[in-house]
Design a protein that fits this description.
The chain has three helices and two strands, in the order αβααβ. It is α+β, with helices and mostly antiparallel strands. It has one domain.
Length: 92
């Protein structure tokens, strides 16, 4: 069955859960391990700019993760998150 609208809220919830909440929880857990500086990689996607058809939710999740990365870099001393937009890959 094809998509009937541009946005599927359940798909967006899934991507936000992984790309935003999950990444945040990972950073919190790593930060608790010590007071040393923390470096992390947020693997974003070229889909943020390209916004391929039928990938709206994915693109939105990745964009929100990028915003979170900037916010954490600003608000947590010693935090450095590198945010890299990786090219799209063929997947199944």
């Amino acid at each position: 069955m094809g998509r009937t609208c541009e946005l599927m809220p359940s798909g967006l919830d899934a991507f936000l859960g992984f790309d935003v909440s999950g990444f945040y929880e990972l950073c919190v857990a790593l930060r608790k391990e010590g007071d040393r500086g923390l470096s992390a990689l947020y693997p974003s996607s070229a889909a943020v700019e390209e916004r391929p058809k039928e990938m709206t939710e994915y693109s939105m999740g990745k964009a929100a993760g990028e915003i979170l990365s900037v916010a954490l870099n600003r608000s947590w001393p010693g935090m450095h998150i590198a945010c890299v937009r990786l090219p799209r890959l063929l997947t199944d």
